[in-house]
Amino acid sequence: EIQAFIFDLDGVITDTAKYHYEAWKQLAEELGIHFDLEFNEQLKGIDRMASLEKILSQLSDGGSSFTLEQKQEWADRKNNNYKRLIRTVDESEILPGILELFHDLKQAGIPIGLASASRNAGTLLRQLKVESYINVIADPESVAHGKPAPDIFLKAAEALGVDPRYCVGVEDAEAGVQAIKSAGMFAVGVGDAEILSKADYIVSETSKLSLSEIQHYMTGR
Ligand code: G6P
Ligand code: MG
């Protein structure tokens, strides 16, 4: 019944969610804005500019006084922090169980799509040496609305030529799970069951992802 798997990248295939956190924290501290892991949870899956807006919205004036140029400069600064942090990422940073799952999907003839909001996704896939497993990469610059809107997941399904109803989406972010559900797909959440409560199926960590388990849950729904 499953005709495609569509994966998020950061926090699912590799633990770069921690580098995004670190990069935003560096910027927020320069701007004198408090930033912690709990706040960061809201930024997972959210594109660069929208993330910056959320951080600035904590200022007393909601960040409304800054020019677009100023905001662009801060967004670039965060991205430079991030690029510095991911420079040494290699295949040792693929999360546990992911390669096994990719292998099982390939074996089962189920194609894989990528639905990441990150403009650094291509670079990371290359560094992780997993490009050959991914059949389609949805370009985040080509979609009108970022997660939690379904656009990027729908784009990946369309490129794969698969009806969203037969797609499984895999996400570590609340906004990402929401995007998968809005796309009409089966949502697999990886992480905290409370945060990801809207998912159809939740595992605490990637090592617990299993194709046969997911197939079982999806058909037994
Ligand atoms: C992913 C991450 C977000 C990040 C977004 C944009 O969705 O979970 O934390 O903001 O990608 O990434 P970029 O690398 O383009 O800034
Ligand atoms: Mg993610």
Structural overview:
- With 221 residues, the chain is of the alpha/beta class.
- The protein contains nine helices and six strands, in the order βαααααβαβαβαββα.
- It has a six-stranded parallel sheet, sandwiched between helices.
- The radius of gyration is 17 Å and the shape is globular.
- The model has no long low-confidence stretch (mean pLDDT 96).
- 6-O-phosphono-alpha-D-glucopyranose (G6P) binds at residues 10, 17, 20, 43-48, 51, 79, 116-120.
Brief descriptors of the model:
221 residues, 6-stranded parallel sheet, alpha/beta, binds magnesium ion, single chain, binds 6-O-phosphono-alpha-D-glucopyranose
- The side-by-side strand order for the widest beta sheet comes to 3-2-1-4-5-6
Average pLDDT for all residues: 96
Largest sheet: 6 strands, parallel
The unique ligands bound to this protein are: 6-O-phosphono-alpha-D-glucopyranose, magnesium ion
The arrangement of helices and strands along the chain is EHHHHHEHEHEHEEH
Distance between the termini: 12 Å
Explain the layout of strands and helices.
Elements: E1 4-7, H1 17-30, H2 37-41, H3 48-56, H4 68-86, H5 98-108, E2 112-114, H6 121-128, E3 136-137, H7 151-160, E4 167-171, H8 174-182, E5 186-190, E6 201-203, H9 211-220
Parallel strand pairs: 1-2, 1-4, 2-3, 4-5, 5-6
Bound molecules: 6-O-phosphono-alpha-D-glucopyranose and magnesium ion.
What would you say about this model in short?
The protein has nine helices and six strands, in the order βαααααβαβαβαββα. By secondary structure, the protein is α/β, with parallel strands linked by helices. The chain has a six-stranded parallel sheet, sandwiched between helices.
